[in-house]
Design goal:
single chain; alpha/beta; TIM Barrel; 3-stranded parallel beta sheet; 18 helices; 9 strands; binds iron/sulfur cluster
Length: about 400
């Protein structure tokens, strides 16, 4: 479906009455949707499987209910964070088949940024109003045993006010092994050094069989869960993510979200859920023929987002769309299929771009505000941990940049 047709599709759903759409859905779909929407009844995995495969009238009813649940639980604000990605190295030995970002250290495009370059990038981000630096990189076999702590000390030493959101569970696993430390003291040490929160990436699909094909060297499910729950336990919140549109079956998505829901009940440490569409062009998965062309953009994404909103209802409140994976226009439409958060400005994005993504590296605040308005909503800047920054707005609604930090000496 073209973007215009998708736009019309969500508009028609928005205009229709919930009763009419629910009446047209199959009875078992209707029961599940009414239960979660009206009574906050948690969807069972069986209902999840049913809803995740919804099509036609069932899908329209699913999207309508997700949008109503979003309005009831989050209101009409669309949150976003002014942040900068900092991919400090692309040298990596892990070899994930879905990744187009990694390089071997002898390749021409390999890099490992110096401290000076990193500080310049953070200084530039601060001058442009960033409150967060999101720092992740390849798993570089030549890094020093305490490199991640040193990176935190470097950045927090120069910019103590910046929130550092960094180090996926894969990086934490590798870093802890290099430092010869257990996860708990290692994560506590990073927190002491200034780490503010952890990306819940490297999750892809939390199913060891699927992971074996995606990347047999990657952190396994047990370690991913242990690292994330330990991070939460030592006071480091994290995001929760899923990568979809590759080898996974519906049951993998449902099991993955069930696990996220269970972890959240145990720790309360997830700040948001972020579905990430697989970008295939420059990946081994695609080149080896293990994955064909992923499903067309549009309804497939709407269903995943709407399903996530309802399946996680009562556990993870914030659902983040990804303009990097979907493009700004399609991401804006997902604001009507359950999403309440537009992610960040990023300023620099290599991981998806290197996999063949063509959506750019930066979205200015003005564009986020414009897209939110076009969807009948209002954009509000937030911090990484979802504190809303209304106070940064001038009376005329203009959003001043945060004070610029001086460039590093
Ligand atoms: S996804 Fe991360 S760990 Fe896997 S190959 Fe790419 S950079 Fe390395």
């Amino acid at each position: 479906m073209e973007l215009q047709a998708l736009d019309q599709y969500v508009e028609e759903i928005e205009a229709a009455s919930p009763g009419r759409l629910l009446d047209r859905a199959r009875p078992e779909v209707r029961v599940a949707l009414i239960g979660v929407l009206d009574s906050h009844r948690e969807l069972t995995p069986e209902q999840g499987l049913l809803l995740y495969q919804a099509e036609g009238d069932d899908l329209r009813a699913l999207i309508k209910c997700a949008d109503l649940a979003r309005a009831a639980d989050c209101g009409d604000e669309v949150t976003y964070v002014v942040n900068r990605n900092l991919n400090f190295t692309n040298v990596c030995f892990v070899g994930c088949r879905f990744c187009g970002f990694k390089r071997q250290r002898w390749e021409a495009e390999a890099y490992d940024h110096s401290d000076r370059v990193l500080l310049e990038k953070v200084a530039e981000a601060r001058r442009r109003g960033a409150t967060e630096v999101c720092m992740q990189g390849g798993i570089n076999p030549q890094m020093g045993p305490l490199r991640y702590r040193e990176l935190l000390e470097l950045i927090k030493g120069a910019f103590p006010e910046v929130h550092v959101h960094a180090f996926s569970p894969m990086e934490v696993m590798y870093g802890a092994r290099r430092a010869r430390m257990a996860y708990r003291p290692y994560l506590s040490m990073l927190r002491e050094a200034g780490l503010g929160s952890v990306p819940g990436t490297a999750a892809e699909i939390l199913d060891d069989e699927v992971r074996e094909t995606l990347s047999h060297k990657k952190v396994d499910v047990a370690n991913w869960v242990e690292i994330i729950t330990t991070a939460h336990a030592v006071g480091l919140p994290s995001t929760a993510t899923v990568m979809y549109g590759h080898l996974e079956q519906p049951r993998h998505i449902v099991n993955h979200l069930t696990l996220m829901r269970d972890i959240q009940k145990q720790t309360g440490g997830f700040t948001e859920f972020v579905p990430l569409r697989f970008v295939h062009h420059n990946t081994q998965l695609f080149k080896l023929g293990l994955v064909k062309e992923p499903p067309p953009r549009g309804l497939f994404d709407f269903r995943l987002y709407a399903f996530s909103r309802l399946y996680l209802r009562g556990s993870i409140n914030n659902l983040q769309t990804s303009w990097v994976k979907l493009g700004v226009d399609l991401a804006a439409l997902t604001l009507k299929t359950g999403c309440n958060d537009f992610s960040g400005t990023l300023m620099e994005e290599s991981i998806t771009a290197q996999a063949g993504g063509q959506e750019g590296e930066f979205v200015p605040v003005d564009l986020i505000e414009e897209k939110a308005r076009a969807m009948g909503r209002v954009a509000v800047e937030r911090t990484t941990l979802y504190r809303k920054l209304y106070d940064q707005r001038a009376p005329n609604g203009a959003r001043p940049l945060a004070p610029a930090a001086p460039p590093p000496a």
